[in-house]
Amino acid sequence: MTPADEALRTATGHDRAAEALETWIPAAAPRRPPAPGGQHLVRVRMCPRTASAPWADAVLRSLPTVVAVGEVRTPAGRVPAEAVLRGSELSAVERDYRVIRALEHDSGSLTSSLRA
């Protein structure tokens, strides 16, 4: 289970892997009660080009609504592949989501101009 999967399970009370298995193999134990509501949750997949930037991990982990970062191993080392954002205020989650997407856009522009 990735850190992102664990954060989703903690925030929602649902385990995607267990629930997928339960569709094929019925669970012996009763389902868990639903997690408390009032939280906004977003799973963000990172653009590989942005994720491999040296500053990506530090910036990502500094965002206030980021509760988990999933990493992948590359020849350059471990880089962030996804993040889970969670907060009681939708505007805070959306702000951090927009920061991530803006970094991806700016990173793409920078990479394109360096190749020219």
Can you walk me through this structure?
- It is a single chain.
- By secondary structure, the protein is an alpha+beta fold.
- The protein has helices spanning 3-12, 16-24, 48-51, 56-62, 90-115; strands at 40-45, 66-74, 77-87.
- The model is unreliable at 109-116 (pLDDT under 50).
Radius of gyration: 17 Å
Largest sheet: 3 strands, antiparallel
Assembly status: single chain
User: How much β-strand is present in the residues?
Assistant: 15-25%
Number of strands: 3
H/E series? HHEHHEEH
- Put simply, the count of helices is 5
Strand order of the largest sheet: 1-3-2
Q: How far apart, in Å, are the first and last alpha carbons?
A: 41 Å
Helix share of residues? 40-55%
Mean pLDDT: 76
Keywords:
116 residues, alpha+beta, three-stranded antiparallel beta sheet, 48% helix, disordered C terminus
Produce the secondary structure layout.
Blueprint (H helix, E strand, L loop, with lengths): L2 H10 L3 H9 L15 E6 L2 H4 L4 H7 L3 E9 L2 E11 L2 H26 L1
Structure summarized in a few sentences:
The protein has helices at 3-12, 16-24, 48-51, 56-62, 90-115; strands at residues 40-45, 66-74, 77-87.
